[in-house]
Amino acid sequence: MDPVVVLILFAVFLGAVSQRVSGMGFGLVSGPFLVLLLDPFSGVVLVNICGIVASGTVFVRTWREVEWSSFWKLSLGTVVGTVPGALLAAALPAPPLQILIGLLIIVSLISSMIIGRIGKTMPANFGTKFTTGFLSGTMSAAAGTGGPAVSAYAVLTKWEQRAFAATLQPFLVLGTTAAVIVKAVFDHSAWPQLAAPSWIGIAAVLVAGLVSGDWLAKKIESSTARIAMIILALGGGTATLIKGLSHLN
What we know:
The protein is mostly helical. Helix content is 82%, strand content 0%. It has ten helices and no strands. The longest helix has 26 residues, at 161-186. It is globular.
């Protein structure tokens, strides 16, 4: 098997494990590595496609705890936000897009960690939900990482963790689906050019990662899983940033 395909499968597996253990993180963990292995545009589309499946699978188990009023307000913003994100991704050449993706991942992770420590709050109204959704949609379409913006919102509004994690799943499904559709409209070649056996392998490792994550979630603390996710995502984001910088003329 092609070594690149093997690495793609491994990145998808790690992302699926992270999604099941922590409720988010598929794009953060697998995204930068898939961007490195594929081109930045189709790499993000593959992240979006797999993220739809991963979040949808978790949603099947948590739908009873979803706060639907918050979901619709966030979702309105994310659908609108996918348009500028997709336009930006389609307009940028590969090296600047890699730099943008790397920076977005690094900055979003660092910001979410800082926000979690400063103890500030903000109101949970339509304006803040729409703005959060918009930022999430833009980042999802541009970099495949729509989760950090909503995670920061949850911290700042003191959103109860179980309700937040449950609501995040259908929100990410809708946001990533919108991102894939909008990007396909702007660039018909956006779909990752992979052979049928590779797609079958991706489906298999997605399932394996979700099952493994389900088992792992019972064995380790969520804080430990979050630290591992952050380390992997920061490493991948840094590597993506460096690759983009190294290919600038």
